[in-house]
Design goal:
The chain is an alpha+beta fold and 523 residues long. It is built from 13 helices and 29 strands. A 5-stranded mixed beta sheet has the order 22-21-20-28-23, with helices on one face. It has a 5-stranded mixed beta sheet with strand order 27-26-25-24-29, with helices on one face. A 3-stranded mixed beta sheet has the order 2-1-6, with no helix packed on it. α12 links the parallel β26 and β27. The N terminus and C terminus are likely disordered.
């Protein structure tokens, strides 16, 4: 019983305590071992970090790029050598214009280091300074994600006299090969073009060498691969170019005037004013376009002299079929010279293209030299008989009484070809000794005209010789009324003495044309 109790006591108290002490001892050993291992790792890491720190005191971090060159893990000396070696491959291409053709972007010459004694300065100091600025304690970060890019400015040394000598040796930079630029200008009149044109400026090859030397030197210092002397304004350029506004305005104005085309119907004659004539009238002097207005004046006067029929003698075939020559008094085509000169001048300034008649101050009934046409009044002053033709048909004829032959010459009805001045009714004819009302008044020359004469009992025969009018053609009232219906302003009136004027009055000088004062209509 006692053993059982003792055993029970041992089992209940002593045995469990002995079992717990054993695992505690193993854990302690494990912790000690772990600590020792960490210490070893830390010692190795510290050693490696120390070695890296020492290493990167004299080496560039990985992922370091200097002037485009990978310099990772390199010491300063090889970096310096590599950077200075870059100058051996440097060359500057100088671009400009071909001195023969003027072509652009042509290589005028290439400058190498050996040509001008080119070398770098301060590379060692710059690289060593860069390395010294590197924080060697941060080398681990450089391995993880660091990237270091540097643009190192190196000093440049070269012989500027050698540079100038090299540039002057190029063909394009020799004075004898340089060609000056020439300004754009206006050509002479061209028959082929029918006008003027702008001759473009000539692109020169003359270089401002002083400016070129300076710009090339700057390019070398900046280590540029090329320099374009044209883009940098080293060439002497034309002062006036083809796009010059004033130059274009002058040419456009001259060509607009030259483009004028006026086709005249000048009394049935075709007269054309175009380039063939205008090229003699339009000129360019300096910065002005000139129109020879005196030539325009002379041209209009020349055409008027050639084609006007006003006041000229004309042949007329009478009702009896014989031809007579008569003076043209106030009938025919008469150009308004002053008005047409002004109008043609304006048409040229406007560059017009038009068909037209000239301005007329007096118009006839038909164009051409035979301008009377087929409708007219024909008065045979010897036979005292009048014929009225309309479109070639005789529509009326009548006797009349014309100017007397026994008074002064101013009473003699003038012969010639006339144009009706106007017509009116209920007029009063006034003279020094009379005041006579008439129903129909149709003047054709000054104060000479046709009218009704109700005071006369007969017409025709030889009445006019001793008992004629003061110069007018007196008509039977019924005939005057009918004639009045046919005539209008400008209607041709032909008066003639086929057997000559039977004047028997006192010898006097005929009054000047247009100054006759005989029978004045007063309303």
């Amino acid at each position: 019983m006692e053993e059982k109790q003792t055993g029970e006591l041992a089992g209940a108290g002593d045995i469990p305590k002995a079992k717990k002490k054993k695992p505690k001892s193993k854990k302690k050993k494990f912790l000690i071992a772990l600590i020792l291992m960490l210490i070893a790792v830390l010692a190795v890491a510290a050693y490696l970090y120390y070695r890296g720190t020492v290493y990167y005191q004299t080496h560039f971090f990985p992922n370091t790029n200097i002037n485009g060159m990978d310099c990772g893990d390199m010491e300063a000396a090889p970096v310096i050598d590599a950077l200075e070696a870059c100058i051996d491959g440097y060359a500057l291409a100088v671009l400009g214009r071909d001195y023969k053709t003027g072509e652009t972007d042509v290589v005028l010459g290439v400058i190498g280091p050996e040509d001008i004694g080119l070398s770098y300065m301060g590379t060692r100091e710059a690289v060593e300074t860069l390395l010294q600025q590197q924080n060697e304690f941060m080398w681990i970060e450089a391995y993880l994600d660091g990237r270091y890019v540097y643009s190192l400015e190196q000093g440049i040394s070269f012989d500027e006299e050698l540079l100038e000598s090299i540039v002057k040796s190029w063909d394009a930079c020799k004075k004898k090969n340089m060609r000056r630029s020439e300004d754009a200008y206006i050509s002479e009149y061209s028959d082929e073009l029918g006008g003027y044109e702008i001759i473009p400026e000539t692109i020169g090859t003359e270089i401002d060498l002083e400016n070129a030397f300076s710009l090339i030197a700057e390019a070398v210092k900046a280590q540029e691969a090329s320099v374009d002397l044209e883009k940098l304004g080293c060439y002497q350029e034309a002062t006036v170019k083809s796009d010059d506004k004033q130059l274009n305005r002058i040419v456009n104005t001259a060509n607009r005037w030259l483009g004028t085309k006026v086709v005249y119907d000048w009394n049935g004659n075709r007269v054309v004013v175009d380039k063939e004539i205008l090229k003699e009238w339009v000129s360019i002097e300096g910065k002005k376009v000139l129109l020879d207005e005196e030539a325009v004046d002379a041209f209009v006067k020349e055409q008027a002299a050639a084609y006007d029929t006003y006041g000229r003698r004309k042949n007329f075939v009478t009702t009896y079929g014989y031809e007579i020559s008569l003076p043209g008094r106030n009938y025919g085509w008469k150009t308004d010279v002053a008005g047409e000169i002004k109008e043609l001048t304006e048409l040229i300034y406007q560059g017009s293209n038009i068909e037209k008649e000239p301005l007329y101050s007096v118009r006839a009934r038909q164009k051409g030299s035979n301008d009377i046409g087929n409708s007219y009044l024909e008065a045979d002053l010897n036979s005292q008989h009048l014929y009225l033709y309309q479109d070639g048909n005789l529509v009326l004829e009548t006797d009349f009484v014309s100017g007397t032959m026994v008074s002064d010459f101013g009473c003699v009805t003038p012969d010639g070809i006339f144009g009706m001045l106007y017509k009116s009714t209920d007029a009063v004819l006034v003279g020094e000794t009379y005041r006579t009302p008439v129903k129909y008044w149709m003047p054709f020359y000054g104060n000479y005209g046709l009218h009704d004469a109700n005071w006369r009992g007969e017409f025709g025969g030889d009445i006019f010789v001793t008992n004629g009018s003061h110069g007018c053609i007196n008509l039977p009232p019924s005939m005057a009324a009918q004639i009045y219906q046919y005539v209008s302003e400008g209607f041709p009136v032909i008066c003639y003495y086929p057997q000559g004027i039977p004047y028997i009055g006192p010898p006097v000088v005929p009054p000047p044309e247009g100054d006759i004062v005989e029978e004045v209509p007063v309303e």
